[in-house]
Amino acid sequence: MSDFRLGDVIDDHCIKCRRITNHAIVSLVNSAPAKVRCRTCYHDHDYRHEQAPPSKKDLKKQELFNEVLASAVPAPVDGGDLVDAAHAEESSKSKKAKARSKKA
Q1: Residue 32 to residue 5: CA distance in whole angstroms
Q2: Considering only CA atoms, which of 17, 14, 33, 13 is closest in space to residue 25?
Q3: d(Cα 1, Cα 28) in Å, to the nearest integer?
């Protein structure tokens, strides 16, 4: 990592321009850029290390996906076949009982 100085030009993602542009270093913390100013639109912002922030649409998709995963029932680990067989027998019996009650 090279030594940075105030006013040096570096590339960073500008949220106003929505692209990577040249930026001037405005402030340093521990010899690393903390704040930069876009040289195209002159907007000051925190240094983002040339990474665009995720879109709100992507964040919403990820949140919904995590919600679905959290509500999903985990697969049984031990004796899953025995439980599934017993459950299948019970469900077939209940279906037959329902069919009989509908006919009557």
Answers
A1: 9
A2: 33
A3: 14
User: Which residue, among 11, 31, 33, 29, has the nearest Cα to 20 in the 3D structure?
Assistant: 11
Ordered by where they begin, the domains of the chain are 1-57 (2.30.30), 58-103 (no CATH)
Structure token pair of residue 24: 């001037």
CA distance 78 to 58: 37
Express each pLDDT in 40-86 by its tens digit. Answer: 999 999 898 878 777 889 889 999 999 998 888 776 666 555 555 55
Higher pLDDT, residue 2 or 46: 46
| Residue tagged 């876009």 (tokens) | 38
Compute the distance between CA of residue 64 and CA of residue 97 in angstroms, rounded to an integer.
39
| Structure tokens belonging to residue 37 | 């100013």
Adjacent-strand bridge partners of 33 = 28
